Amino acid sequence: MARAQYIETPCKTALNRVRGMPFNWSLNPYRGCTHACHYCYARATHAYAGMNADEDFETKIVVKTNLPEVLRRELARPSWVRERVALGTATDAYQPCEGRYRLTRRALEALLERRNPVGVVTKSTLILRDLDLLAALAAVASVSVYVTVTTLDPALWRLVEPGTPPPLQRLAIVRRLNEAGVPTGVLAAPVLPAITDGAAALDALAAAAAAHGARSFGVSPLRLAPLVKEHYLRVVAAAFPDLLPRYERAFPGVNAPRAYQEALERRVARVRARHGLAARDPRPAFTAIAPSPVSPGNHGQLALGL
């Protein structure tokens, strides 16, 4: 991966109004993400800043340097009624540069001061640095954390999420968070049709979540918005050429076919029941080419609705 550059810029607002989601407000300290997940729906947001959804998204990271100060002003407004804030909905708030800039930690400090409910979704083990703040906030407000794990397959992980921590390292933090009183579940987001949706793969992932003390196990079907679709399908063409025509037929628009989504949810419901896991909390923060060939290898893939 190319070396990232960080574009420091002030922001005018910190809290973003969101519609059509399980939350009304989001907070994003960064734009772009060095996790470089090829399926990431946030790739399209880079176009708003005149950058591309490919390498620019992975290497040109916008840093909102004054976000904690702006957030404090917004939380202090008389009109603010302590609604739930989803942290890092566009890109991971705990991507590696957070270790340097600490914008997410300072935002959590501001939210703790106001006892404001928070939801976090992350792929990063860096969240453990802020265990003290999350535990303190969970003691006085509603807090939920979802650790995203897309696959346990090492080769597939390196292919689709080249800049993220290994899956087992992510799972290891689930128990730590729950033991500290921070309600934490595992989120398979997104599920990649015919690649990570096999019955055996989902069962293994749910079993691992349960073994690591997850309180819930949720999934989110793949969405392919413009720009994201073009990027993702290039990865499919290189790694899984036989699947490309099926994807092209199944995704004329943004969402997977309704029949596929319903079949996926039924499969996941059986997996949850088998491992004693709850469904995803209705109040969460979200709702997310290697040269060596990788075979999907998951027995029982769902049909792509063709």
UniProtKB/TrEMBL annotation:
Pfam families: Radical_SAM. The keyword Secreted does not apply. Signal peptide: none annotated. InterPro entries: Elp3/MiaA/NifB-like_rSAM, MJ0683-like, rSAM, rSAM_sf. Gene3D superfamilies: 3.80.30.30. It comes from the Bacteria. Residues 23-238 form the Elp3/MiaA/NifB-like radical SAM core domain. This is Radical SAM domain protein. It comes from uncultured Thermomicrobiales bacterium. GO terms for molecular function: catalytic activity; iron-sulfur cluster binding; metal ion binding.
